[in-house]
User: Fold these one by one.
Assistant:
Number 1:
Amino acid sequence: MNRLQNLFETKRNILSIYYTAGYPSLGDTVAIAEALEESGADLLEIGFPYSDPVADGPIIQASSKQALDNGMDLKLLFEHLKGLRAKVSIPVLLMGYVNPVLQFGVENFCKACAEVGVDGCIVPDLPMTEYEELYAPIFKENGLSNIFLITPQTSPERIQKIDGLSNGFIYLLSSSATTGQNLQVSDNTAAYFSRISELKLKNPTMIGFGISSKETFDKACSYANGAIIGSAFVKSLDAADLKGSVKAFMQKFKP
Amino acid sequence: MSYFVNEKGYYGDFGGAYIPEMLYPNVEELRQNYLNIINDADFQKEFHQLLKDYVGRPSPLYLAKRLSKKYNANIFLKREDLNHTGAHKINNTIGQILLAEKLGKKRIIAETGAGQHGVATATVCALRGLECVVYMGEVDIKRQAPNVARMKMLGATVVPATSGSKTLKDATNEAMRDWINNPVDTHYIIGSVVGPHPYPDMVGIFQSIISEETKKQLIEQTGNDQPDYVLACVGGGSNAMGMFYHFIDDEKVKLIAVEAAGRGVDSGFSAATTTLGKEGVLHGSRSILMQTHDGQVVEPHSVSAGLDYPGIGPQHAHLFKTGRGKYVSITDDESLQAGLLLTQMEGIIPAIESAHALAYLEKMEFKGGENVVVCLSGRGDKDMDTYMKYFNL
């Protein structure tokens, strides 16, 4: 059992935080991870930046651009992450788009993840079929979980298939939308979350996209094992007082 | 070997649908339905009727006599510039708007670079009374003001793309974001043979009217439907795919695709994708794209906004990799000179995109008597500013 699977065995109301590697400053990645764990985060998603992030809204786009301008790339990220496990014990995922992974080499990428103690990946534009046919064995060899996304429009058959291929958790998008918009749990959304819980999936679920306050977090937790905060956290980071800004943000969720 | 798409959405190593889950239902709906809709007799009837009565097809295949004499070959121009709205783009937008209606969509989105595809999309939306939103890079909005005005007059909303380089690729990103946020009632009319499967195949089918007509016209004019060479410019590659389509399986016909070298392939200001690019994923398909060592998309450059794109469609990547097509490049200067030459020898002002294909004739050697078809994909009205500045007119 890896750190990720262990987390879901032992905890509820899991708070996962997304942030972009190399932002606000190039060397901040591990320091932010450390501060987040100290302030009570349960799970981290570290984004590796991409020039054309179509699934993201303006905040994560801007942080990705800044990170690229700062000089972040996968090679450097893995160097920075060499010190990760000396300081951080909660599970860590890498999240990003498929092209940088293909250029790094999927096998090299998975090995590097395993070496630095990354527990899994979220690659939203890696198709399920290609993952299954080409890459699943490589992920497995390196002990990595691959996290899939589902939206209110994903069909039940496809959700079952995703459940079969998943071995960490399933990422439920609160709506079909780019990142950074507010969660409004309408009747439709509530019905969708209930529909998912009725499917009795073997994997736990986390709700993401649009979680920005304690209220939306609690709401999401009532439907799933936890929730993911991205844009709201990235927006709150203050380069001048990095640790302070992380602590201040986390206070709202883990007082 | 097959040069066309297989059941998994691939052309050899290229293609597929590399899209986030948020786009999956839209793209899957299209994938499941596009062939049935397109092959339906009523659809075909309406499509061809509109191509004839509204677009003005068939477009002429014109034997350019003075140009032929200069190059010592029979140079035929496929006159897509004479289409309604001034380019080949309308063939695709007519097809996709009919398809969107069959799918019950109420709202149309599109990306545009120079504005030709945006105008062609706004035109068909006006024709059918559908809401139209066009994403266009902020930089392109400034350099293509007349086309922005056309789209607005046609009733479209033009939304500036303000991320990244604020040009075509960013407009494409914004259109994809719109589609993610409007998953039910919206159809995205992609303007080239790029994007996730089935777009490259679908756009190729709609543009294939170009080579379908060319074959018939060649028979009428020369008694032989096999030209020696077929040339077309390539940005994403839709006019080239339309021009190549019915010749691809006939290996006697040499296919030449002309990319934009910009200020020179080694200048750092180029859009010569097959020379400068590597395999990877861009805008939903595996293809060849200009990118850094780390897989970040590189900004292209070309004097021609329609060729200013960092990738090529996956079928082109396959034709390139298998050697079925020859992929070459032409600089900004060479294309502008070729544009002037055609204007003064044949009385046709070509789009600078199309002038790239014409410019390659200078680099070919003919024995005499070869039949050569060049796709004149668009007219040069939109480029008058560039021509005026370059030639001090």
Number 2:
Amino acid sequence: MTIENGKVSPREFPTNRGGLCQKGWTSAELLTSPARLTTPLVRRDGELRPATWDEALDVVAAKLRALREEHGPDAVGVFGGGGLTNEKSYALGKFARVALGTSQIDYNGRFCMSSAAAAGMKAFGLDRGMPFPVTDLDDAGAVLLVGGNPAETMPPFVQHLKNAELIVIDPRRTATAELATLHLQPAPGTDLALALGLLHSAVADGHLDQRYLDDRTTGFEDAWRIAASWWPERVERVTGVPVADQRAAVRILAEARNAYILTGRGTEQHASGADTVSAWINLALALGLPGTKGSGYGCLTGQGNGQGGREHGQKADQLPGYRKITDPDARDHVMGVWGVDDLPGPGRSAYELLDALGQPGGPKALLVFGSNVIVSAPRSQHVADRLKALDLLVVADLVLSETAAVADVVLPVTQWAEEGGTMTNLEGRVLLRQVAVEPPEGVRSDLDVLQGLATRLGQPAERFPTEPEVVFEELRRASKGGLADYSGVTYERLRQGEALHWPVVGESTPRNFLDRFAHPDGRARFVPVEHRGPAELPDAEYPLQATTGRVLQHYQSGAQTRLVRELNQAEPEAYVEVHPDTATRAGVRDGQLASVVSRRGRTVARVRCVPSMRVDLVFLPFHFAGEGRANLLTNPVLDPTSRMPEFKVCAVRLESV
Amino acid sequence: MRNVVVVGYGMAGARLADEIRRRDPKADRVAVTVLGDEAHPAYNRVLLSSVVAGSLTPEAVRLHDEDWAARHHVDLRLGGSVTKIDRTRRVVHVDDTEVPYDALVLATGARSWVPPTDGLLDGNGDLAPGVVAFRSLDDCARIVDKASPGTPVAVLGGGLLGLEAARGLAGRGCLVTVVHPVGHLMERQLDAGAGRVLAATLNGLGIEFRLGVLATRYVPGDGLELNDGTHVPADLVVVSAGVRAETGLAEQAGIDVDRGILVDDALRTSDPRVHAIGDCAQHVGTVSGLVQPAWEQAAVLADRLTGAAPAARYAGTTVVTRLKARDVDLAALGDVHVGVDSADDEVLCFQDPARGRYAKLVLRDDKVTGAIVLGAPDAAAAITQLFDRGLPAPTDRLALLLGRALPAENEASPADLPASAVVCRCNTVSKGQLVSAWRAGATTISAIAEVTRASTGCGGCKDAVCGIVDWLAASQPQSA
């Protein structure tokens, strides 16, 4: 989109086809919002008070130095965000490892796409959310969408699904499910069993693409041994999805000329999320979809720069270019680019990092960029308590988010239309964001902040440039030879409107895997996975299950969108969707406030009776603050591979307030 | 290290070994020896009907591959027969060798019961030519070998497995007749009404039935004679008339046996060092013959034997019967033999034999205690969930019988929509806002999109917005 005189207008672009939802139309309001921070704040005598930039940065740097001297470099942690530009993500990772020398950096993308990323790496040797241009979906005969609700979360995307037979898998009858030819409604936390069942049906109903298996994959036998024990009738009993619907779903995919399987957070945000995505990829492989022109597997990005944000080094286990921090060659390359002779190793994952704050051996200071963890992290009251235990909390944000409100130092930073930089969208395409308006007086870019802190910590200024294009030039070199190779991307090419999908060495790669997958043998790998089910099952005390998700009007923790009048009028407060019978049994009524209680906390939300809900399920959107935080309830048990928390299912009860 | 010896490498024995290794992957605590009498690796008996139907190959139903035992530190000995258990010395005799145990698990399964029809057995007590039991993978190979299209086949037994075999054979083009001694099919799980609808459904798939009659004589190459004087032509007779628990070894060793080997909640037999699971075991009066109890028993016993949960108890299994037959959706669960006029229960019944649908629901205190659901896949799945999870049934019983909440009304005409109805989701635009905008002069689609932003997101509401604009235009009084 473009902006002129404070007014937004849509622009024709392949992803959205000139469409905008309410969030897009109203996004200019944030540029001039009275809630905008325009001066640094430093906590004095218990209150956040305006300060100059020098005062604020001096306070932070002095404290960081002292903590590091006393407790070592890992006493300082850094928490990034998937909304940051590639340049900021890159600079943040470099800042943490070079200026702070800490291994303790991770970001909120861990809560977003880490399960899909882990599964994609295992299967294909490379993780690009969609390894094909989004417009390829337009020609799909069938699309299986698992745990995604784009009609609510990114409406313009729905245009790409118009021609396909759409199969939606979601425990709720969502707006997207309403658009589907076939809606499969599994019990929460049983997607893995369902995926195994669909693989079983693919074999039993003769839909296996044997030639593709022989030519392009390995490991089918081991995956089948497990899926063999998930015959459709058994799967029906575990998931509640009728046998006939399981078979129909596979048949629709197999009989379509082109077909795609797409996953979203609903199926990924589980303690078995990585294995669940592996099971969906196994199904896609059995049907011969990935790496076949006009077909494939993809993951829907959750944040503005969810893709690029995970490629350039703000992840605990990664270096720029999607390199592994434990790989000696990768370390050598990056040390060479950065001009340093040592780097810390891997650090804690997002929730583990938050959980360790202020604990013996854990960080004593945390710098937060582009994230509102008090609202968005699981078991959020515990996270709030951990933040309180810190010696220093620094938050860089454009508004006083709930997390910023409890910080010791708050740094006001620029936002979308005020800053340049690149983002990598859901199809792995690098986009250039150009400065459209001047930032308000007093506001600095995150790159400025990082340079300001780095120089105070004894780093040469030129090591932390503030010009996005200069940072990007370095990112190109750092990513060169990595999986996400940006070395052929330049601002110049982007300005000329070239569509560049990574890897870009010379040419763009709109479609990965057409000739070979990224494993050394060129083959995709089936990963044998077994169903585990939710970590926490309902019992007499907590007889219901809760799941969380988004509404159209809000984004992430809602810190920004709740400030936009029009959006907030449409969805002003936390609510809980329940089946009318479930409400009656709990003694609560439509339109009243009720408590939703789990082992970890209590959320207060307004009851919405929805007859299409399962009687044992409640749904809460996660955008609201205070006692309306859905994440007061969520279970922080982690996936063993991706370290993704189990956001999407926990045991609760419903009570009148 | 504790020495666990498992007699039987079928679904129960194989699962127990898997469950033990899940808890003790490196064999630090428990050594496992599995003794199997068949020569090939364990296979999934539940899927044999798929093999008969031709949808799965025999290779595809193997539970383990060839090197499973080596990878999982299991001493697997195939093809030998266990002749004796010496409980005093704690050894089992396998042909000429002795295998010592600290804990012995009998997972010997069950064998087919052959009805006393003349001619089914030859002089040696083996099945006569043209007669095959439906029990093992080898049986399936024999059945498939003879089941070419057009072959007349008789299935003895109209229970769950007999019908699955019949459906698979009919799918292969065989001319199948099911002979069943009771007046309706699957009488243990179904009432007469459901049995009739099921027979009609299967009949539509090409299967003939002879109900309430006994086969009196089998003549090879000809077929079966029935006790009503009629005759069923058959080149192949598939026997699926029930099974009997394999209890011989236990009995011989002096272990208490009834219809199965008696076990308590710890799955112990009358000798506490000897356990039994699966089809050979009898727990609180039940010899199940189903896979799910066997798997649950294997998990409990693995907990106990590995010390992962030494106090684990098996409390019985809630059984849901689900016919695995293409194009037939049948689920039966709980106690269904209750009349609609029962004083203690709420009973719902829906019958639509012309469309192959039958649903009976028994509720007590709002919870499902029994159900038969035929020809209504959504309802079968939803009701099973309520039953398994002990959830109260929705008060809207009609919705319950449909299996889901009633679908929304078909698109209402613009006039009937309430003003508050959201037409454009992407931009939260209600019908009321569209009407106001129209009255304020935005009377074309593009004008109304400009003012309200309706239809500027995904574009999915464009038709609805057009409809409202047309309706407003039409309802405008004509100017002269």
Number 3:
Amino acid sequence: MSQSSLVPLPLRPDLDFIGRLVELAGDSFTKCYQCGTCSVVCPFSFQGTGLPRREMALAQWGLKEELLDSPNLWVCTTCGNCARVCPREVDIPGTIRAARELFLLERDPSRELATAFENTSRHGNPLGQSARKRADWIAGAGVEVPIMARVQRPVEVLFFTECYWSYHPRGMEAAQALARIMAALGVDWAVLGTEERCVADSQRLAGESGIFEEAAAANIATLGNYQFGRLVTPDPHAYNAFRNLYPRMGGTYQVQHYTQFLAERLADLALAPIPSRRVTFHDPCYLGRHNGEYEAPRRLLEAIPGLEMIEMGHCRANGYCCGGGGGEIWNSGFTKEHVDERLSEVRVREAIASGADVLAVCCPFEVSLFEDAVKSTGHQGQLAVRDIVELMDESLRAARN
Amino acid sequence: MSGATGVYICRGCSIGDSLDVDALAAVAAVEDGVAVTRTSAAFCLEDAQSIADDAAAKVDSVVVAACSQRVNRGVFSFGTTPVRRVNLREQVAWSHTPRVDATQELATDLLRMGIAAARLTNPAVPYTKDHLRSVLVVGAGPAGLGAALAAGEAGYQVTVVDRAPQAGGFLRHLHRGYPATGEALSELPPFDPETLVQTVADHANVTLLTATSVLEVSGQPGRFRATLDQSGERRQVEVGAVVFATGFQPTPDQLFSRYGLGELQDVITSVGMEELARRGEIVRPSTGAPAQRVVILACDGPADSANRAYLGNVTSMVALKQAMYVHERQPRATVHIVYQDMQTPGLDELYYRHVQGQRRIFLVRGEAGGIRLQEDGSLRVAVTGSVLARELELEADLVVLQVGMIPTSDPQSGAPASLHLNYLQGESLPPHRAGFLDSNFLCFPFETRRTGIYAAGCVHRAQDVTASARDGAAAALKAVQVVEKSAQGAAVHPRVGDLGYPQFFMQKCTACGRCTQECPFGALELDAQRHPVIEPNRCRRCGICMGACPVQVISFPDYSVEMLSAMQKSVELPEDDDKPRVLVLACENDAYPALDMVGINHLQYPADFRVVPVRCLGSVNSVVVADAVQRGYDGVVLLGCRAGDNYQCHFIQGSELLGVRMDNVRETLGRLALETDRVRVIETSIADARALPGELAAFASNLAAMGPNPMKGF
């Protein structure tokens, strides 16, 4: 904070700032009654910085500089648990997002965030990888993965791989596992390959709506060249954008998260027992809380013989955040400066305490975040982090052997 | 005393499966005075007419041994013939093991008790002398005027008085109201005291007297005599009932000295704000210029001396409304409301949101500290305890303090408004919580502790103009009700329609005066010999006087110490160690329903308890308990309502008085060298019914540990 907290803070509302926030986020934040329920369920409550009730009060009172100075603004993951419990139904994540957008008009983001933004603009992915290598994962799948530009006919399923399954080593493994399952099911499917661009929903949540809109226009144009029955993606953030934002921009698709797609086809899969393990599931914020899907991932896990399902205390609508949402996946250095513990570490401890051997996930950010957290909390060998698709692939392979 | 009794035992609702009904009929047939005994598969469905025929021709009283006295009242009502109900359904068949000796013995005892009670039930002779169809309304503010209109419209003659020279009350100090439910949120409804006062004054049934105060009120519902003083001239009026609506006073300015009220010119109260708004612009008193930065302090924190209980829903809304006064007049002005506890129940929440939605009105939850005057003449208000966890500072041209509302009935307000009742128990209306006049907000609103006098408006509870007017109308209808009941000689709440009232056997009265002191409603006066005299229409028929009398000279035609004694004596007390007998005196308002609830839920408790319904635990004379213990009951349970601050007693202090009387009972137990634990008071309510069987069983096992009462058989 720029000013000493010993000096009384004058309440001089910046009415123009309030007006711009209302334009971007609606006026629900003006109805906050400062009860603080949001801060109780915020995953950062342990830090005691008052996130997000502090920021909502600053927004409501039009204290622009204090709000833009607040580190909390860039710590928030927009996980949305606050909005779930808000008695006044304030769109807290939306208001944080709007404040970030106004911040970026005047100030620079953290270096790492700036890099992610720049990579997305320049390369079509936040990792800074070459756009030409976007389909390289296909080579290791062991089955044929059709590319949309080559099949030259309508397909049933267009699979939107997104960046982390395209480039991240652990993501590529998951994508390859999915390809094998698609082959086993005999699905008529294809991917966009190098034509695909980052959906950039997390960049939008980090305040960069320009990048998002540009990427959306490009993707909508590309998708418009092809005919397909439905759009399936492994990334809950992309799913969120396809479902809730693309329709407003002219891109209306029948979209599913991969867990939803597979849950409908469980009967067609010959799943065999895998070595018995106790598994717990981490609900992705943008699949669960933001889009209401809690069952599909659980149905997949429950269908795999050998797995015993355990729920953690924070699950379903009250699920904890992995720490990667809202652009925070690229802002961990900043967050580390302001917060004592990573959310992924808190979550891994909860998974360990639940007695699980496997932490199952279904969001591309989570595998690497949690694998790092397993190491940093000193639990190597005690907890495996696996995407659900990997567990299913293992079960299918057990059936073939 | 009744002659022939008819006994009607029902087999329905599983009573017949649980009990040997023929055996019960055989027991009844040989009891004194029983002329007819009948049984039926279900009296309520097919055979109620046979009872009615008997009542018309053969019997003087009726005993219906079937379901609880709380149900089927209409079915088992036979003109003026007294009816006594014996509860074989909820309290026997549904709550005890069927077809065993212990259950049959329980039913037999209850039946004998009912027959004994019926023998001692006499028809009531109602008191119907006083029933003036008129109302005195004291206070001509929104509530009083509302009451006057409602009573006038009901055809009653109304005298409405106000000590002020002009009617209208606090309404004349107000600029506008806030939107009531369903009204447009963006408009503040205007008040029109002139038209309202004129409407009341012009009403054919209403006489409006201003500059008039009440010097004295005597009498009882149906005929109160009021002495009025109109500008020095005395007037007498006789009315059937009274509505007391003297309103509130704002909290005194001294309580706001910490905010500089009286010292800083630009610090005003919410009353001053109404005045400003009525005059036009919201201006700074110091300069006369429109205020551009207004801070409204709700003064509603727990530590705030101006904060008073039960008024947040009014002052919160006033704070929001006054913010809109500024907003409407000076659209570029900013308003900050500092509050700790915004109370906008129900649809008032919509108005709260509406005000929050104004771009230049800000709500800051926190505690206002001191106010400092700056060199440029502006004010600085410090705010702590906000969600920012650091001190905030507000710059202001004008600070508005929300004042509290003190009911004029509050004795702590110095000189409370009074009817100057000419009652033995004193001239004031006893207040309930926080100085408000009410005896129980939930169960019997508007009832003060003086029958026939009803509280309305801000002496009843803190409320706004719209609610006060409605409150006045409701109180007026209670006033109409009490007069109409007086015409029938019948009681009002809770024993609505009860015709009997206490009779005094004066030859034995020792003129101790205890009954006159303990009556919760001040129904008893003293005559020249200091003997009690009842004003029957003030009486609520609780029987507390009957419980109080040390020489047992007070009784009702259908309820007496003699009757309770006869009931306890008709229970057989076996000498076997394994058959303890416990007398339960159960308050019929909450405890008896709780026992019924136990049966309705088919919960079980030991068959050792013999339940006698009583009107109030306060009506239990200690002699009844002492006699029971002396006769050989192993224990006595007094089952009643919660006493104390959150009392549940329908008669205010019955449960509390019982506590005092228990000392007499303990003395008796001591004299007999018996354990004091043999007599226990259990407070219960219908909501606690599930816990009741456990408490009764625990009491029974405690008794078992003590062994049988050694007085048994003497």
